[in-house]
Design brief:
Length: 283
Amino acid sequence: MGLGLRRIGNANADEEQEEGAPAWMLTYGDMVTLILTFFVFLFSVSAPNSQQFLLSVRSIRGALGFPPLPSAIGEEPLGEAGSESGDEELKKALAERLEREMAQLEEVKLLLAEFLEESLFGDTVRIEMDERGIVIRFAENVLFDLGKADLRPDARKILDEIAKVLAKIPNHIRVEGHTDNLPIATSKFPSNWELSTARATAVIRYMIDLHSIDPRRMSAAGYGEYRPLKPNDSDENRRLNRRVDIVILRLGLSEGEPLALPVGEGNAEGVEAGGSIHSDSGR
C-alpha cells in the first residue's frame, strides 16, 4: 500500500517539473547577463574623462622616472574632473601664463631695440615676434660671406652686443641657419644642409666660447632651403631667404626642451665645465 502511494507521488512530481521552464534556460539566462555586463563595461571605458586620463599619464611618467608634465595651473589642484568650472580655471591659468611670458619677451625686445638704435646695424638686423618668441633676423652677408660658414670680422661686434642681452635672460636660445635653393657641392659643404647647420653652429660656438653663455640653454638647427620666407623665384627673394635667425623662445616653450644634466655630471651634451664644445666621438 505504502509502495503504491510513493509511486503515485513521484509521478506527480515529474509532471510538475515538466510544467516549468526547461533546464537549458538557466544557462542561457546567465550567458545573456554576462554579455550585457560586458557591453556596459565597454561603453564605460569608451569615453574616458580627460582629466582623469591626464592624472593617470602623470602617475605613469613618475613611476618610470620621467620628468613630470608641467601643470597649466601652477601649484593649484586641478578642477573637478569634467566640470565646467575646471575648464574655465584651466583656460584662465593658460591665458595668465601666456600673458606673463609675452610681457617678459616685450622687456627683452625693448633691450634689443635700444641696442640696435645705438648701433650701426639697425638696417641689417630685424627683431620680430612670432608664436615661438623673439626672432633676431640677420640680413644676407651680415654674419657670413656667400657660401661660407666663417664669421665675418665685423659680425663679431654685433654678436658681442647681443650676447650681453642673452646672458641676462633665462630663456632657451635656438640659432637657425637658412639658405636659398641654389645648390652647393663643395668638399666642405656637400649640400645646403651642411652649410646652414655649420652657420648656426658657428654662432653658438662664438656665444659660448667668447661670452660663456650656458651651453645647456642653446641649440642649433639647420633648415637648408626648406624654410624660406619668400618663394625662391627671384634674386631678391633668394637674398631674403639666406639668413641666420637667433630665436629667444618664450619660457613655456623653453620648458619643453630636453632636460640637461648639471655641468660636470657626465657632460652628456658634450660640453666642458668651462663652456667650450668638444666631441669624443666625431659628432
